[in-house]
Design a protein that fits this description.
alpha+beta; 5 helices; globular; binds coenzyme A; 6 strands; about 140 residues; Aminopeptidase; 6-stranded mixed sheet
Length: about 140
């Protein structure tokens, strides 16, 4: 768990990154799944998804260490998470990302996610979140 915490703290600013208790709760939740990608014998990135309802799953976080970015790890992680959701008959993936995180917004758009609304003051640092969704029926 400490490895994932360290990666999350490297990927997100304080106030946006999770603490150990939050991360542990997400990973251990019976409706959640966590995937990690290893490179050169160490974890380079991970994704936690949570089944929210009979129809939808939520991406809790996706984190790729800076040295491994733009090499397909993010795509691999989100692909397996979407397939996990599709195999369970879910129709939609939902996520929040910071309004200021243009790299993540481009990443999600490239995978067919749409910005559906903005939640002001979502993060504890006061920044707003974009809610983005992907309907599997429409996308595949
Ligand atoms: C967002 C993130 C997970 C992407 O991971 P990644 O491994 O770099 O993504 P990939 O290499 O699979 O990129 C897939 C595509 O997404 C788009 N993309 C990814 N990062 C991008 C960036 N910084 N700028 C523009 N487009 C980007 C591109 O279309 C890219 O394809 P290309 O490299 O062939 O052009 C990674 O940047 C990250 O961990 N960031 C910090 C944490 C974060 O913001 N997480 C998401 C918010 S919850």
């Amino acid at each position: 768990m400490k490895t994932l915490l360290k990666i999350d703290q490297e990927c997100f600013p304080p106030g946006v990154s999770y603490n150990l208790e939050e991360l542990t709760e997400f990973v251990r939740h019976p409706s959640s799944r966590t995937w990690v990608v290893e490179a050169e014998g160490a974890v380079g990135g991970f994704l936690i998804a949570h089944r929210d309802s009979p129809a939808s799953a939520h991406i809790i976080t996706i984190d790729v260490l800076e040295k491994w970015r733009r090499q397909g790890m993010g795509n691999l992680l989100i692909y397996v998470a979407e397939n996990w959701a599709i195999r369970r008959g879910l129709r939609r993936m939902v996520l929040e990302t910071s309004e200021q995180n243009s790299a993540a917004q481009r990443f999600y758009r490239a995978r067919g996610y749409r910005h559906v609304r903005t939640i002001p003051h979502y993060y504890s640092d006061g920044s707003a979140a974009w809610v983005m969704t992907k309907d599997f029926d429409a996308a595949r």
